[in-house]
Amino acid sequence: MNILAVTDIHSRIGYARKLARKIKNIDVAVIAGDITDFGDINLALYIISLFQKACRNVVFVPGNCDDSKLIKVKDVRNAINLHGNYFITGDVAFLGVGGSNITPFHTPIEYTENELWDILLKLFNMLKSEREYLKILVSHTPPYNTKVDVTFFGVHAGSVSVRKAIETFKPKLCICGHIHEARGVDRIGETLIVNPGPLMRKHYTLININENSVEVVFKTV
Length: 221
Known about the structure:
Elements: E1 2-6, H1 13-22, E2 28-31, H2 41-52, E3 57-60, E4 75-76, E5 79-81, E6 86-89, E7 92-97, E8 100-101, E9 110-111, H3 113-126, E10 134-139, H4 160-169, E11 173-175, E12 184-188, E13 191-195, E14 203-209, E15 214-220
Parallel strand pairs: 1-2, 2-3, 3-5, 7-10, 8-9, 10-11, 11-13
Antiparallel strand pairs: 1-14, 4-5, 6-7, 12-13, 14-15
């Protein structure tokens, strides 16, 4: 499966449009939050629509800087809101949680660690009765104490609940964002963690995944 992974667009419509026109042969486009920079829901949906035109399937989670109304949007044509939800295509299940853990900045969509854990626990348990899928977690907030949650100040700012969910349920892949300066990859057990870097700085990632391997290529628009 070929995946386009983008995050932290922060209302940069020009970069989103340029990338959407550039990509080819993508099975699923993943947008891991902060679609806007405190913009309204209509702007978020417009940016999502740019990728809808280019990709067969689009999945997204709202980021902490998005309009809180985006949480309640379930799906728009071929775009699925993964917050507390999942999307299955073939043998792959995408599961998601949006917003972030509590920040010092009082942004629109923030959750306590207990709230994040409740969302994640319910979500993974929803799939327990289903057949075994290759699971991909899409979380705006990266897991705590990894290479992809380190701020400019050297502080780990990720979520302990996201990390706990990864350690407990062992998805094959986690796509995250939120910490702009922490573009890169890490591992928690057998789970590969990918922070594509912010599209607002022209960054994105192409991922090829199957049962046996995950290949990640970092690119710029």
